[in-house]
């Protein structure tokens, strides 16, 4: 029996609509697993969802309201605020605390980095980075879909800081994370050049022959199979050589083609942890919150990954 925690993310987003849409699936999975929605005290609820004060041994789908949130808040869908940003962040921290107690896997529903920062959480960069801080180890974002797996070597940093971040990148830990991931099995890896046309032999930048070459050497020593540097503008074309895993130099270099090709079925998987954390490959969608048109495909994909991971490696 697996234990799965779900952090609620921003309560003014589409998240509760996604949970409502997947309620029958969550109840069905709850016949064999323990599933807990970690939520703050507010007016967004799921009808017929039992609320507990702590995890129990019995399977089922429940909610747990974390303590210390003060008075119950009243939120309006599609109207984020400092209060909803703080609630989303506190839900994440509470889910992390429970994960450490239970050893559960974790689904993080979308939150807004902007509103978390506005709530006073200075330096917040995202789920992946917060998990790295909480567990005191490097973590790596892998976007995983039906056909593509992409790891951006730098995540939520300004483009001007990418090269500096790559100089500090922990290639050895990336190799360990790839090797130990239950979602990757001896992957054939293609790595993208950082510069246009993979640097044109040094004519358009030298990062391919310095930073990337050094990093790839470390990964090869870990017995991983890599080819590249690939020209990023053609690596994902239909007639290009396919790879099990792509390493992108920065966030948009890898995530733009991934989202175009994988659509709503993409899942964000955090590598480097002793448990599995997944998240839908979309944001808070405040603009459509409350309109009844939110697509639960991403959350369904997350649930499928967690319950099938031991029998269906990528």
Automatic annotation (TrEMBL):
The lineage of its organism: Bacteria, Pseudomonadati, Spirochaetota, Spirochaetia, Leptospirales. It is an enzyme of class 1 (oxidoreductase). Coiled coil: none annotated. Its EC number is 1.1.1.262. Gene3D superfamilies: Isopropylmalate Dehydrogenase. It comes from the Bacteria. One of its GO terms (molecular function) is NAD binding. Keywords: Metal-binding, NAD, Oxidoreductase. This is 4-hydroxythreonine-4-phosphate dehydrogenase (4-(Phosphohydroxy)-L-threonine dehydrogenase). The gene is pdxA.
């Amino acid at each position: 029996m697996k234990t799965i925690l779900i952090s609620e993310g921003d309560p003014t987003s589409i998240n509760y609509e996604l949970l409502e849409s997947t309620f029958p699936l969550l109840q069905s999975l709850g016949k064999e697993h323990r599933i807990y929605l970690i939520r703050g005290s507010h007016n967004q609820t799921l009808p017929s969802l039992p609320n507990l004060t702590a995890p129990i041994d019995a399977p089922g789908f429940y909610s747990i309201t974390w303590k210390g949130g003060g008075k119950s808040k009243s939120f309006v869908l599609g109207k984020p605020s400092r209060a909803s940003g703080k609630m989303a962040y506190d839900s994440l921290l509470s889910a992390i605390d429970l994960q450490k107690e239970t050893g559960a896997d974790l689904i993080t529903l979308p939150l807004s980095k902007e509103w978390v920062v506005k709530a006073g959480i200075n330096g917040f960069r995202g789920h992946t980075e917060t998990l790295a801080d909480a567990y005191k180890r490097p973590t790596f974002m892998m976007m995983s879909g039906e056909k593509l797996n992409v790891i951006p070597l730098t995540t939520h940093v300004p483009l001007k800081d990418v090269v500096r971040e790559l100089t500090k990148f922990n290639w050895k830990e990336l190799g360990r994370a790839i090797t130990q991931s239950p979602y990757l099995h001896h992957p054939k890896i293609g790595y993208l050049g950082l510069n246009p046309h993979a640097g044109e032999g040094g004519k358009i930048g030298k990062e391919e022959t310095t930073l990337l070459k050094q990093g790839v050497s470390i990964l090869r020593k870990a017995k991983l199979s890599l080819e590249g540097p690939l020209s990023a503008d053609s690596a994902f074309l239909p007639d290009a050589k396919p790879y099990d895993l792509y390493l992108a130099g920065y966030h948009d270099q890898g995530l733009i083609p991934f989202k175009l090709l994988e659509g709503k079925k993409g899942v964000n998987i955090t590598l480097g942890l002793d448990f599995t954390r997944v998240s839908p490959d979309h944001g808070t969608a405040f603009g459509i919150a409350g309109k009844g048109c939110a697509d639960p495909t991403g959350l369904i994909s997350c649930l499928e990954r967690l319950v099938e991971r031991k029998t269906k490696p990528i």
